[in-house]
Design goal:
Blueprint (H helix, E strand, L loop, with lengths): L2 E2 H8 L3 H9 L6 E3 L4 E4 L1 H15 L4 H9 L3 H37 L1 H4 L4 E5 L2 E3 L3 E2 L2 E2 L6 H8 L5 E7 L1 H5 L7 E8 H6 L9 E3 L2 E11 L6 H13 L8 E11 L2 E11 L2
Antiparallel strand pairs: 1-3, 2-3, 4-11, 5-9, 5-10, 6-7, 8-9, 8-12, 11-13, 12-13
Helix pairs in contact: 3-4
Length: about 270
């Protein structure tokens, strides 16, 4: 039988615009009546439309669904469905990782008040890190551009970190020289199969004394802001054993005041 575009859309539960889109991809081929300039669809068009909609329902793009609908063997259909299956499995894996990371971030945010200026011992996995600033001033380094692009694309699995060199920390300065840069824990490097080069520093797994500090975003990290951690280390008979690492939790802007909350890790032995 022949159906007008409105009738055809109503019977198949799609919009007229959807029919026009599928016609554009040559999935359905209405016949034009030269007497009234109407286009008419038939029952074979319905089969092709429904088949292509089925392909779309299993996440096959419309352009590829059109090819499968118009000209495909069972082997080519199986190949495309297996490709779609692998893509979906990878997406589910990434979404599961993201859900776990969001849960971790939420737990970290909720714990800020209880962790602020308190100390505890923690062991961190190895860290890969790039240096992007001197204090808060960005460095211009063309060699880092491709690495930065890659690491930015895997946020929030990468994170913003600061580093105070051990010798700098041992100085008597009130304000330290330090650098900011993107960092990734070693297990994430493996999960995302990210390659490193000589521009990437590796910090081996260590035991740290950990605390959360809060600074105005305009202020530098000072000795005073870390003194409670140093006091804890000395009180418990530890000694500082390397560079100090910081990790941004979140920046807060409220009532015209900007604050940055940082996790600070001082390695001990």
């Amino acid at each position: 039988m022949k159906y007008t575009i409105g009738e055809f859309a109503d019977m198949l539960g799609v919009t007229v615009d959807t029919l026009r889109l599928y016609e554009k991809h040559d999935i359905i081929k209405p016949i034009r009546d030269n007497r009234n300039n109407y286009r008419y669809f038939n029952d074979l068009d319905a089969r092709d439309l429904l088949m292509s909609r089925w392909y779309r329902s299993i996440e096959i793009p419309l352009q590829e669904a059109a090819i499968l609908t118009k000209d495909s063997s069972i082997d080519s259909i199986i190949e495309k469905i297996e490709e779609t299956q692998l893509n979906l499995e990878e997406e589910i894996k990434r979404k599961s990782m993201l859900l776990n990371k969001i849960t971790e971030i939420n737990d970290s945010l909720r714990a800020i008040e209880n962790k602020l200026n308190k100390c505890e011992k923690r062991k961190l996995p190895g860290i890969y890190r790039i240096k992007q600033t001197s204090k808060n001033t960005l460095l211009k380094d063309d060699h880092l551009r491709s690495i930065v692009d890659t690491w930015m694309n895997i946020l929030p699995f990468s994170f913003y970190s600061c580093k105070i060199e051990y010798q700098e920390f041992l100085s008597n300065k009130d304000s330290f020289g330090y650098s900011w840069g993107l960092a990734i824990f070693e297990d994430c490097i493996n999960d995302f199969e990210i390659k490193t080069d000589s521009n990437v520093e590796y910090i081996e797994s260590k035991t740290y004394i950990y605390s959360v500090i809060c600074n105005s975003q305009e202020d530098y990290i000072t000795r005073k802001s870390l003194q409670h951690i140093v006091d804890y280390i000395e009180k418990n008979g530890y000694s500082i054993a390397g560079d100090i690492i910081g990790k941004i939790i979140v920046n807060e802007k409220f009532n015209n005041e900007s604050k940055g909350y940082l996790e600070i890790y001082i390695p001990i032995q």
